[in-house]
Sequence to fold (148 residues):
Amino acid sequence: MSGQADGGRGLLTVQAGGERLGLPLELVREVVELDGELAPVVGAPEWLAGLLNHHGQVVAVLRPAALLDAGAAGAGRQVVLLELEDYRLGLLVEKVETVEQVPAEKQGLGGGLGWHQGGPLRVLDRLAWQRLVDGRLAGRVEKGPPGG
Fold:
């Protein structure tokens, strides 16, 4: 990729709970339009939207706004499927914005908060998502992204 030499990274930018998130393209497997409802999980925490049957594979779909304590989530109908080290998960988002190369200086450090196209952009890399999800699954109360 051409932007990689200058420290840039290909990102899929999305809207989730009024916040813009940058998802590294190397994590994104697919964007799925929901044509029905997610299967509910009884007693699930607020950040777990439900389960999606995607080509015979059950995928947990998370609400990134609740997971990141970023505010109330809107009525998302798009699921971004991410491939992490140990599992695949979905993120329920209100809007998929763009796919583009974003220079490293606009991404923040360590996958944190940066500034891009006139507004804040929170970029979380594979390790940040893994820690955040693992922490929530383990029952730890972590506010916001790990290390941030």
